[in-house]
Amino acid sequence: MEKQIFISYSSPDKEIAFSVVSYLESQNVPCFIAPRDVDPGMPYASNLMHAIDKCSAIVLIASGAMNNSEHVLNEIDVIVNKKKNLIPFFVEEFEMNDDFRYYLGRTQRILAYPGMVSSYYNKLLDSVIPFLSSYTPANQKKEEHTIKEETSAAANTSTVFEYIPERGIMINPEDHQRNVSFRTDTFINMFSSIFDSVDEIAGREKTKEIFHASGYQSGQNFAQRLNSRWDFEQNTPSSYETKLKKWCEFDSNVGWGKFDIKVNVDIYSGDFEGELSINECFIVDKKNRKQVCEFVKGYCEGVIETLIDVQVRLECISCPMKSRFKSACVFKIMLEESEQDF
Asked: How do beta strands 271-279 and 258-266 pair?
């Protein structure tokens, strides 16, 4: 397939550049990016010149590192002289040096900040599409094939992560971030070792607090990313419930266990009740019976609080470590009374 988009970037921005390529190509936009697409049978410079000639548009990954790249400056000089369509994609706020200001001073650009750079990929795609000689949306292409909904677990896994063999990494198409796969026993052993070391120094209760706080911060961070991507009407019971169910669906799909949540929210009376269950939670340590699952308890509190903007507390009402016949962690979700001065 002809590569219609040329990606220009400086070496420190390599990870972002390849992430952009991963996203665009997942949307059926073929890209040229060095060194991946360089033909070893041709001189390097000739490769780049040929690719620029053939492309429909150029995406420039613009950052402070670009200022120090003679390589990128040479590419931009060629691109401008050939009157190619140029889309600067600014991944951070910085002051361009005089050389780049000369070429880009009046060029329309995409500002991929504040927030996660990947949250601006859709905007970049919209800017690229008008320059393509032909384009078939990814969802339309999928509809042209017969896809059975009843797929195997292995097939489902392949839709969650996209493996990039030339980099040896996996990208989650949901948010275009890097993911790493662990066996659950490896993860539990790692957490258990940390738990034991902290327990020797600080005691059991303090160790549980530390694991809970670590999970809570992780949950807040993840929910902030979800909030930045989801567009719901704010402060309505339906928006709260939809957000929480979408979060449970997401974490279920990436192997944390089967999440299920039931909530009843009345924003007028202030009443709130709910229950969260995680069947076969990946972090339950039935063998050594270490309370490393405090991490997940804190994580869930951080996610729920950030998604619906209220303080909550989870109370465990059913624990797999207390019975060999149980497989689900079940939590009652309660509002945490806030202390205010009146």
From this structure: antiparallel
> What is the number of other CB atoms lying within 10 angstroms of the CB of residue 231?
7
The type of residue at 102 is Y
CA distance 268 to 335: 15
Strand partners, 261: 276
Rounded to whole angstroms, how far apart are CA atoms 14 and 276? 40
pTM of the model: 0.53
Ordered by start, the domain boundaries in the chain are 5-150, 194-335
CB contact at 8 A, 303 and 220? yes
User: Can you tell me the distance from the alpha carbon of 209 to that of 237, in angstroms, rounded to the nearest whole number?
Assistant: 31
pLDDT digits (tens, 9 = 90+) for 217-275: 999 998 988 887 766 555 566 778 888 999 999 888 888 899 999 988 776 676 778 99
Neighbours of 204 (CB within 10 A): 11
Helix (H/G/I), strand (E/B), else coil: 97: coil
Using one digit for the tens of pLDDT, what is the confidence trace for 57-69? 999 999 999 999 9
What whole-number distance in Å separates Cα of residue 337 and Cα of residue 310? 10
What are the start-end ranges of the E strands in the chain?
5-8, 31-32, 57-62, 85-90, 110-111, 162-164, 169-172, 177-179, 258-266, 271-279, 312-318, 328-335
CATH number for the region 194-335 comes to 3.30.1380.20
- Specify the residue for token string 């069947």: 279
Long-range contacts of 265-274 (CB under 8 A, 24+ apart): 265/237, 265/240, 265/241, 265/308, 266/237, 267/235, 267/236, 267/237, 272/310, 272/333, 272/334, 272/335, 273/333, 273/334, 274/332, 274/333
The domain defined by 5-150 folds into Rossmann fold (3.40.50)
Ordered DSSP codes for 203-261 = -HHHHHHHHHHHHHHHHHHHHHHHHHH----SS-HHHHHHHHHHHHHHHHHTTS-EEEE
